[in-house]
Please model this.
Amino acid sequence: MMKIEKKSSTLSAFAVHKSKQKEKNEVNLSKRSSRVQKKKEEKKLKASQKQSPLLREEASIKSSLQKVSVHVKNRTPQNATATMNGGEKLNSSKRQKDGSTKKSKCHAAEKLCVTPETDQVETKQKKSTHKKKTVKTVAELHGKSIADDLTSSSMLLSELDGSSVEQHTSDSEVQAAKIFEWLIAPVKPRKFFSELWEKKPLLVKRNQPHYYEGCFSTAEFDEILRTNNLQFTVNVDVVSYADDKRETHNPVGRAHAPIVWDYYQNGCSVRLLNPQTFSTNMWRLNSTLTEYFGSFVGANVYLTPAGSQGFAPHWDDIEAFVIQLEGKKHWRLYNPRCEEEALPRFSSPNFKQAEIGEPILDTVLEPGDLLYFPRGIIHQADTPAESHSLHVTLSTCQRNTWGDLLQKLVPQALQTAFEEDIEYRKALPRDYMNYMGVVWSDKESSERKAFMNKVHQLVGRLFHHASVDGAADQMSKGVIQDSLPPVISEAEASRSIFGNGERWENGAVTNRVEMEPDSNIKLLRKGIIRLVMEEDQIRIYHCIENTRVYHEVEPRFLDIDSRMAPAVEYLIESYPETVLVDSLPLEGVEDKVTLATALYEKGIIVTMEPLKPIFDD
Model:
């Protein structure tokens, strides 16, 4: 196996080399653009002759989505609720004081819905004695659901193994977008992010109990308990909630199935903290959505016995997507109690019922339904007397904010300012303690005004010393460390280090392969690497060697010479197209093959076709 030689490297050397390579890179990219355009024209011609089942399916999805699209001209106030109903009335075993059955309701001033007869937007005004926040329904669908035109979760997730597409043209970004579109359908992603994301909850009622079938099940949970060494507290929680008090009943040691089921039979909810570690479908779903969001996507599974509640009202520090898999669950959502509690960075303590006010959404989820709510939305859920519940909560955007970016940016900018700008190294006025501080905060003086102006000036100048790209790289490096490793399909394994190369066969090492200048290569996934400049070194951070246990290993990276960085950039920018090793923007063939071999041996790239064995004489 060939190894990459580590040479001294500095950021300035990288910048000089990039400048020298610019003209040559432009020529290479121009040639590549011509090849890409030619390939696109050939694909378009083939598609016009015979449309594939996958394309027909996508066209059907788009057509169906257009039919149910509802455009709301007036913007909905923040923290209102959007719902998507499947046409059935919701019933709950929980009774109001007057004994009547609760129905799915939004505490709202007006409601928008689409009727099957007219397919027009209707507005219904509720009587109100005082002003309330408006809660708008995106659409209410009756009869046949859009889900009828979409693939099942098991079929859709299996497509991610690459068996249904040409591997050298597969695009992980496109696959990730398709998964998210399926997750929230029939709401369009563009509408979701412009009107709902971080603003207000979304309820999708599909009347399609098999929509999420294949993601996870209670039977799979039982199998996981029996065949894996799950530990209480680390992997499994058993909890209960009654009389405004939540209790955790975790014993010490392994979560054996009979013990877990005994707690369940006695009214405890069971939470599986990391299903992606044990379930392949959850692993595939989470890793794919992580690439879509650019932020780690985790998951918890919640199994609740009938007629019980496991958790107290609280808010979370993540954007939550609740997918109902089995049974029913009664949910109540509440607005943040004040503006300061909206989009919080950390989860809340448990609340008492008297502390949270009236719900903005009160509904029952059934299999196939989706509930999304932003960080800071207080929530609680219980099961009706006649039904258990199994749901998965997908979570993302934990501490992935502008403020978190600035936490990376400002210290670096200040350090650079100290080094490069003498103004930051000048002494404070010798008498500043006579007019600055809390004691003087309500006093006015010329000295105080000058001091404040100086601080304002220095803070403004700080931006000129800030490396925004560097801070973004550091944030991205964190995402790479958080990420699950990619799920490798059989087709990908045959074209990569995971399934091709030397092996022991018939008493000898056989199947030796080598990277060649005419080998076609591409990144395994778009989001598996990040090129970062730090500590006077250029590094390729990757998630290939991560495990399915969160942060079980230290960040993985490959140090490279500054001369090779443009070639890595070229691979990133070329994705999803394959490129010839010989087309990498490096001076010599040896360097090109050396870099490609190093990336291949780390599993970062795959070849267009399996490398052919070399037979020694």
User: Anything to note?
Assistant: Confidence is low (pLDDT under 50) at residues 1-12, 24-29, 46-82, 84-150.
